[in-house]
Amino acid sequence: MPSSLTVRAETFPIRGTFRISRGAKTEAHVVVAEVTDGGATGRGATGRGATGRGECVPYARYGETVAGVVAVLEAMAPAVAAGLTRADLQRLLPPGAARNALDCALWDLEAKRTGVPAWRLAGLASAPAPLATAFTLSVDTPAAMGAAARAAAHCPLLKLKLTGEGDLDRVAAVRENAPHARLMVDANEGWSLKQLDRYAPALAALGVELLEQPLPAGRDADLAGYQCPIPLGADESVHGLDSLGALIGRYQVANIKLDKTGGLTEALALKAACEAAGLRVMVGCMVATSLSMAPAHLLAQGAAFVDLDGPLLLARDRMPGLRYAGAIADPPTPALWG
Q: What span, in angstroms and rounded, lies between the C-alpha atoms of 114 and 28?
């Protein structure tokens, strides 16, 4: 029997409201792709009916909608039935959320068909280890962010969403209420170059270790040769392998997200290319469930910064999910992915 593709949209409530410089949301909207193999066999295989799953988050910033991603994925059903491979997929779909869901589903399916875990299929030298993830604080008033920091002061690494004016007061309030936490900040393209000049020295004095995407992605050239007292991280400026060249000499860290690269296949290649080019790697996520985090957990092994707290921001996660002990995320079980 040929393989079959099932696509569905799902919604998960967020705990409270998640705010960044571009807006706020109270729900996470995800799309899940499931590929079921009608008759695969092999050593350790589960046999007929093995199913691989992948999840993505359509992102309006990149012109994506839930309906649009569902439509793109559903149009791939004939290719899946004909035996679509990950290599085929890289040629048929561009980087983005739709390709991510299907690529990760194919990784999961191969692991379940063969009985070989995804980390071995990816060529990792050893099984994934637990990871310490950042915990994200939404942008808010300084008082509210200080209170949130106090509640999360046990987390070793906090990521602060910023927006522009008043950001130094926000960071100072967080530092006061979480004096021992490591800090990184993310402006989500919300600053001007003048604000960067003004804020960066003060942020360095507050112990901030990473400043993510201060300028709009289209203004990357303004950072060429820029002497910043804090390492600069690219996020919205990083997509697939073809975006790497524009980062060199402008950023020191690249935030790789599966929804931007279009899946684990290109993300692994981009990670290797970044490291070869002298860029440190951060592995990040959208607000999503553990099914999105699971392949990213594999990618994040050895990364300089890990930001895979999406399920911690939800009111409920899918089951089974990743096991979090505070800010420590265990590797996924095969029942979840891989």
A: 33
Numbered residues of the known binding site? 186, 212, 235
Q: From CA 262, how far away is CA 92, in angstroms rounded?
A: 11
Residues 6+ apart with CB under 8 A from 293: 285, 308, 310, 311, 322, 329, 332
Please give the positions annotated as active site. Answer: 161, 257
Q: What is the DSSP letter of 337?
A: -
**CA–CA separation, 261 and 263 (whole Å):** 6
Structure tokens at 148: 């949130």
Residue indicated by tokens 């995320």: 329
Per-residue pLDDT for the chain (338 aa), expressed as one digit of tens each? 789 999 999 999 999 989 998 888 999 999 999 999 976 443 334 445 799 999 999 999 999 999 999 999 999 999 999 999 999 999 999 999 999 999 999 999 999 999 999 999 999 999 999 999 999 999 999 999 999 999 999 999 999 999 999 999 999 999 999 999 999 999 999 999 999 999 999 999 999 999 999 999 999 999 999 999 999 999 999 999 999 999 999 999 999 999 999 999 999 999 999 999 999 999 999 999 999 999 999 999 999 999 999 999 999 999 999 999 999 999 999 999 99
Annotated binding-site ranges for Mg(2+): 186, 212, 235
Residues whose CB falls within 8 Å of the CB of residue 110, separated by 6 or more in sequence, listed in order:
52, 116, 118, 121
Enter the pTM of the model: 0.94
Are 54 and 8 within 8 A, CB to CB? Answer: no
Fill in the DSSP letter of residue 301.
T
Which domains are seen in the chain, by residue range? 4-118 (3.30.390.10), 131-329 (3.20.20.120)
User: Would you give the end-to-end CA distance of the chain in angstroms?
Assistant: 23
Residues in the chain: 338
